[in-house]
Amino acid sequence: MIMDVADLSRERIGRAGAILLGGRDFGELRNRARLAEELGFDLAGLGDVPMHYREVNVCLAVVAEATSRIRFGPMVTNPVSRHPGVVAAAAASLDALSAGRLVLGLGAGGGPLFSMGLSVPKRPELRQATATIRSLLAGEPSRWEGRPLTLGPERPVPVYLAAYGLVTARIAGEVADGVLFAGGTSPEVVMSALQAVADGASAAGRDPGEVDFWVMTRASVGSTVEDAYAPIRANLASAGSHGLRSEAQLATVPEALIDAVRELQRRYDQSEHVKWDGANARLVDELGLTEYLAERFAIAGTPEHVRRRFDDLVELGVTRVLVPAVDREPEHFLEAFAAALA
């Protein structure tokens, strides 16, 4: 059976998720969540950036009440600013409110924690927090720092672990329902991450096919590639600052650009995290990093280019592609990205 164009379009957008921000008021958030649902997106995620945007769990409740089909969840929260037991309890409550539509995205915290003067958890701590939260959301007793924890969710809630590098991707394969891979979109990078997840699952005695693989990437649609880069420069700066900090990740950067990446990390302004027209957006241009970071961390270009890159990721084995709608016209982005997948 040959799939017609309309069916193929619906299948593509059904593999996409949008990451939203709270907006200036809750009315904007309601409208954006409803628009994402109407356009056919599978998921609406919200960033957990407490010093810059409205409280994520309040915003998630607004999304739950404003929509009826679309899945939603924090993309991502962390186990530092909130105790793992609190993270699990909030997720179970939101899942109950929405009749089973909650997906919990968990990560190390990165920029949001830095902006509050907090340290990100080490990998063993992140691994244990993920396992603890997943157990609680499966209705199983667990422990955190030696203390027993129990929770009674109405149904199991899936837990996805965000990863920039291969070590964390392997941890996701061991202890999470899926991975939110943000380390890049090139075939080589994605294939390496897929293998890391499979290795982690196998080492834990799990079927690698049971671990979902999502890619979180910056996206932009324009009449030219250069036009598409402009609104995502702040997101590219965030990716370069937070996603390339480890020595392992820096080793994957072309030698001629390593000094520029280190300078980006030194000068990155946490107070303007993902502000589309802020100092960080200008900094990537100044340092000559925009094109490199866009090619590594984004799907950006003409509609045909975006559609081709999206299909390439699905062919590699990516289940969902999550894209942040954080530029100055989020509604326009959602519509343009959905149209590009048609």
Description:
- The protein is of the alpha/beta class and 342 residues long.
- It has 2 domains: 265 residues, Luciferase-like domain (TIM Barrel, Alpha-Beta Barrel), CATH 3.20.20.30; 71 residues, no CATH class.
- 49% of the residues lie in helices and 14% in strands.
- It has 16 helices and 12 strands.
- The strands form 3 sheets. It has an 8-stranded parallel β-sheet with strand order 3-2-1-12-9-8-7-4. A two-stranded antiparallel sheet has the order 5-6.
- Strand 7, helix 7 and strand 8 form a beta-alpha-beta unit.
- It is globular, with a radius of gyration of 19 Å.
Compact overview of the structure:
With 342 residues, the chain is α/β, with parallel strands linked by helices.
Note the total helix count: 16
Give the CA-CA distance, first to last residue.
19 Å
In CATH's first tier, which class of the largest domain applies? Answer: Alpha Beta
| CATH architecture verdict of the largest domain | Alpha-Beta Barrel
Give the helix/strand class.
Answer: alpha/beta
Unreliable parts: none
Kindly state the mean pLDDT as a whole number? 92
Task: Could you tell me the CATH topology label of the largest domain.
Answer: TIM Barrel
